[in-house]
Amino acid sequence: MLAGGCLCGNVRYRTEAEPRTSVICHCETCRHTHGAPMVGWVMVPAASLQLTAGKPDTYRSSDRATRQFCNVCGTSLFYVADARPDEIDIATGTLDDPSLVPPVKHIWGEQKLDWLRLDDALPLWAQGSVGPDARLLNEPSSGSGKAD
Question: Which domains does the chain possess?
Fold first, then answer.
């Protein structure tokens, strides 16, 4: 089981589903939303996510996705892509124990900050890692490097 919540405790959640994947995103929108140079996400089936306290507010952050956040402390909690309505992305840093779901790849490497140096040997994808346009930017020394 994975559980977590926002900084102030107003919103709490849990899921018993096995994560589909865990990534680090370097896109500009994630960076701005979180105020961080990159953001960790854990993807789970949307139907598996249970709110155990509070209810997050929703913000349409682009023409292809919505984000959910605590309206008290501002913590960014969830991301839902229009193209993947059956999946919800949980901000890894909001988990009670983020170490349970280490990332397996980096996405949106085309927007990675120039000064950020990655030495984790994970695959770095230009944008997303699935679909016909998926393009790997590095040759990872560990991990499969396969799109999933």
Answer: 2-111 (2.170.150.70)
What percent of the chain clears pLDDT 90, i.e. is strictly above it?
82
What six digits make up the tokens of 118? Answer: 């990655």
3-state helix, strand, coil in the chain (%, to 5): 15, 35, 50
Phi, psi for residue 34 in degrees, rounded to 5: -100, -15
Contact 17, 48 (CB under 8 A): yes
The backbone region for 131, taken as left when phi is positive above 0, alpha when psi lies in -120 to 50, beta otherwise, is: left
DSSP string, 10-50: SSEEEE-SPPSEEEEE--HHHHHHHTSS-EEEEEEEGGG-E
Question: Which SS3 state, helix, strand or coil, does residue 87 take?
Answer: strand
Kindly list the distances between the CA atom of residue 102 and the CA atoms of 6, 22, 105, in Å, as whole numbers in the listed order: 20, 6, 9
pLDDT at position 142: 53
pLDDT tens per residue, range 24-80: 999 999 999 999 999 999 999 999 999 999 999 999 999 999 999 999 999 999 999
Half-sphere exposure of 10 (CA within 13 A, CB side): 14
